[in-house]
Amino acid sequence: MPEITFKITESVGTISENARGWTKELNAVSWNDHAPKYDIREWSPDHERMSKGLTFTAEELGELRKLLNKLDLPTEDLPDDE
């Protein structure tokens, strides 16, 4: 199996952290030296290991934003703005 290479080109933010210290993050990642795409997945604290995740082009991420904005979430479920 060929080696997969990656480089996080932009750290957008952390969504959550689990008890083992892994963080679910939104980042721009270049996979195998291709143009970066937006990526949501869990990362180990040293960013050497990762879980399976979802990868989006900028256009797909824009469409996801539109869908998320349509959600009617109860306000008590939302985190406080920082």
Please describe what this structure looks like.
The protein has 1 helix and 4 strands; from the N terminus they run ββββα. It has one helix at 58-70; strands spanning 6-17, 23-31, 37-43, 54-56. It has 82 residues and is α+β, with helices and mostly antiparallel strands.
Helix-strand blueprint:
Blueprint: E1 6-17, E2 23-31, E3 37-43, E4 54-56, H1 58-70
Query: What fraction strand?
Result: 35-45%
Mean pLDDT: 92
Radius of gyration: 14 Å
Counted beta strands: 4
Low-confidence stretches: none
Percent helix, as a range, is 10-25%
Strand order of the largest sheet: 1-2-3-4
Number of helix segments? 1
Give the H and E element order: EEEEH
Give a short account of the largest sheet.
Answer: 4 strands, antiparallel
User: What structural class do helix, strand and pairing data support?
Assistant: alpha+beta
